[in-house]
Amino acid sequence: MFKIDSTANRINPLEVKRFSDLGFTERKHLQEWLENYPQALTQGDGDELLIIQKEFDGFDDTRERLDLLAIDKDGNLVIIENKLDDSGRDVVWQALKYASYCANLKKQQVVEIFQRYLNQKAQNEGTAPADAESVLLEFLQADDLQSVQLNTLKSQRLIMVAAHYRKEVTNTVLWLSQFGVNCQCFKVTPYQAGAELFLNVEQIIPTPEASDFMIGMMAKEAEEKSASNEQKSRHTLRLSFWEQTLEAFGRSNCSLFNNISPAKDHWLNAGSGISGMGYQLIFGKNEVRVGLSMQSSRAEANRFVFDRLQTMKPQIETAFGNELVWLPLPDKIACRIQYEKPVDGYNKANWPEMIEWLVEHMTRLEKALSGPLDKVRQELKTTNFSKEPGIEHDA
Length: 395
Fold this sequence. Notes:
By secondary structure, the protein is of the alpha+beta class. It has helices at about 20, 25-35, 90-100, 105-125, 130-140, 165-175, 210-250, 300-310, 315-320, 350-380; strands at about 1-5, 10-15, 15, 50-55, 65-70, 75-80, 155-160, 180-195, 195-205, 265-275, 275-285, 285-295, 325, 335-340. The protein is built from ten helices and 14 strands. The strands form three sheets. Strands 3, 4, 5, 6, 7, 8 and 9 form a seven-stranded mixed beta sheet that branches. The radius of gyration is 36 Å and the shape is elongated.
């Protein structure tokens, strides 16, 4: 750090000092400075702190004292642990202990702690104490205490302040941050220039530039975890649905799915006699569906079968009993013929009706397509797709 000499148009280095060399102590000086100007530990942009207690010792069955206790604009408690020239080895452990103690504090207890702080401060200054609840509501910009989110689960923040950090401290803080523990390390350095003293307060972990990145990464991780849990839940749901569906097919006159096992996917396929072109059951959140999916690796073969079946559309739909949806899907390899029903699929109370519908309509679809598929299968055996290998068929 340099001091600018405007007259000489020069910069002069400031002398780095130790707190102990200047006679400063943790409790009488550093703590007092931060108590009265907590903005030194914020990054601006609305990131404010309100000190609600110092030397807090209100932990059951312990005689430990938390240096400073604050609250941020989101209603999170902030544990501030101060050291001077050396962080020591145990500062993270101390801060974690205090955070665990504070995690149990209820909303009203936080207000009472703050009120005791204001009472003591007013006594020292010889003034009337402010009302803690009113000050809190003004700081949090809330109308009433009931609507405030205060000290919610896993919301506690840790701030450590020291002139020098040992490696075991910084490594531990960085490791904790990976698990969503909000830890910050501020480096405080005293400087001297003649009779003038200066204090530089710098956040070193995480760096201000890395904070947004880490927040984004934690949000992404939470989103991925939520999606993973949702996926596992859906897999379990689908497996249960298909087990019940296959049991119902086993009792029916439709034997297509007799040798098919339940799966975690939203679909089940059964052979139609043509390779890569199978009957399909669909179980979705908003629909159930029966169909024939032409999805072999040969787009021209899929389209050939689709087109041949479409020439027999009136016959097929009359046999099925309803108009089908014909999907040539020109931009894709596959083609589909299907019939669907809107449902609230994830409501298990609807499953018996949905399963009955699938069994009935797959039975009808197989009957309607059986003859036409036999004809198309014979045509495939004699069809030569230009400059392409022949079509594979089921035995």
